[in-house]
């Protein structure tokens, strides 16, 4: 499927973290603009520090998929400790931002085992200065999360971006 939003789990059947549903609108995603997201995730295991995330980001150039490098923490990056990044973005002890707060979704490690669900919620995508290689086009992203060398979950996303 070229263009159009799609997702799938790419982890082992034994991975404790599974994305159960995800929907995103509009399609293509518009920057700046409003993004409506709904999602459900289940975790059979508490996710604690150090929580590692490995991203592989590809962009379509004609019929080819080109892997984008990691530049300024954007692109195909490895984040060795997501917990610390979250603590820097949202100081521990402060309340989680909406709509996470309303739906009881945590924004800090450890993330307890259980099911988390986000009903359709709107997020504002600001007019950020994205590098030229991150603008209009079709993208594929693979995110794998692990802790202590053990894979927790893996998700593949496909989406289109349209910047104004």
Automatic annotation (TrEMBL):
<dbReference type="Pfam" id="PF02221">
    <property type="entry name" value="E1_DerP2_DerF2"/>
</dbReference>
<dbReference type="InterPro" id="IPR003172">
    <property type="entry name" value="ML_dom"/>
</dbReference>
<dbReference type="GO" id="GO:0008047">
    <property type="term" value="F:enzyme activator activity"/>
</dbReference>
<feature type="domain" description="MD-2-related lipid-recognition">
    <location>
        <begin position="7"/>
        <end position="159"/>
    </location>
</feature>
<protein>
    <submittedName>
        <fullName>SAP3 protein</fullName>
    </submittedName>
</protein>
<dbReference type="InterPro" id="IPR028996">
    <property type="entry name" value="GM2-AP"/>
</dbReference>
<dbReference type="InterPro" id="IPR036846">
    <property type="entry name" value="GM2-AP_sf"/>
</dbReference>
<dbReference type="GO" id="GO:0005319">
    <property type="term" value="F:lipid transporter activity"/>
</dbReference>
<keyword id="KW-0732">Signal</keyword>
<dbReference type="GO" id="GO:0009898">
    <property type="term" value="C:cytoplasmic side of plasma membrane"/>
</dbReference>
<dbReference type="GO" id="GO:0006689">
    <property type="term" value="P:ganglioside catabolic process"/>
</dbReference>
């Amino acid at each position: 499927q070229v263009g159009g939003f799609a997702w799938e789990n790419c982890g082992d059947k034994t991975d404790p973290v599974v994305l159960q549903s995800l929907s995103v609108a509009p399609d293509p995603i518009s920057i700046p603009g409003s993004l409506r997201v709904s999602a459900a995730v289940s975790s059979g295991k508490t996710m604690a520090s150090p929580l590692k995330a490995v991203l592989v980001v590809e962009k379509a150039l004609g019929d080819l998929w080109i892997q984008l490098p990691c530049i300024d923490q954007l692109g195909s990056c490895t984040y060795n400790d997501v917990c610390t990044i979250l603590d820097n973005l949202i100081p521990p002890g402060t309340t989680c931002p909406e709509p996470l707060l309303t739906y009881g979704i945590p924004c800090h490690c450890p993330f307890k085992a259980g099911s988390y669900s986000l009903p359709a919620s709107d997020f504002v995508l600001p007019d950020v200065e994205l590098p030229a290689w991150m603008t209009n086009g079709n993208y594929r992203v693979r995110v794998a999360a692990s802790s202590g060398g053990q894979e927790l979950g893996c998700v593949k996303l496909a989406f289109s971006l349209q910047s104004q």
